[in-house]
Amino acid sequence: MHQDVALGRLSRVRRPGPLQARLRRGREAVVYGVLLLCALVSVFTTLAIVAALLEEIWAFFDEVSLIEFFTDTQWTPLFRDQHFGVLPLLSATLLMSLGAMLVALPLGLAAAIFLSEYAPAGLRAVVKPVLEVLAGIPTVVYGYFALQFITPEIVRPLFTEAGPFNAASASIAMGIMTLPLVSSLSEDAMRAVPQTLREGAYGLGANRFEVALRVVVPAALSGIMAAAILAASRAIGETMIVTIAAGNMPNLSWNPLEGMQAMTAYIVQVSLGDTPRGTIEYSTIFAVGMLLFLLTLLLNIAAQWLLHRFREVYE
Asked: Does the domain made of 87-309 have the CATH classification 3.30.565.10?
């Protein structure tokens, strides 16, 4: 009887006519077109950025050879005795980014383990949003925080030879800035690990710390590594912290207690408006910008590769 009632209801459902079907297909086509356009905007934007950079660096490399650009140890394009070796800017950028990761990765991973494996739900609901507030602080505030607090209160008491502008304070500030990125993404990756893996480890006699360190972290390794690389990419592209705290003097050195100039800080310096457009000095910001673009692109490609290479699929 129930089957007869169900069949009767289905027989009374009006099938869409040809006009309604065409209208529905038309609406779906419109939605598809709008979504495709939104997806292509990012692609076209990236291509436009690359085209704008290539247009300017073509003129730059007409006058400066690639060998000089990547091997000369001096960067003085704004002085009379011009040198166009990008190594001082590149080394400063990599040094400060590495220092930022030395701060952000241990602290961020420890915070992620605590939030995922130790913190009760109520505490997690309070701590995680408070931690993520750090990501919303303007970077110029971090820059002055490094200059006014980290350098005089942390760096110089430990290393008296450190100057007022140094790479160490900028690295610490960038590490604090990227800490929410590492902790949030790592915690999300750990929370995605099935509970059955934890219960199996507990059943074998492991304690909570052993489960977190030997089961959860390896299972979430792809997400943790992707978070680390994305944080490094964010640190490489940081502008205001390194401009304010690290100084603006190109210096080929691996001593974090010295002042130095990152690639982004140089772009800010030349973009202030004192350099005439169309000159070789003006073109240097596009050459440095292209190198910065390639570094961040390589890091993002590495993050995607690691994500697919070490991803654990659970069913």
From this structure: no
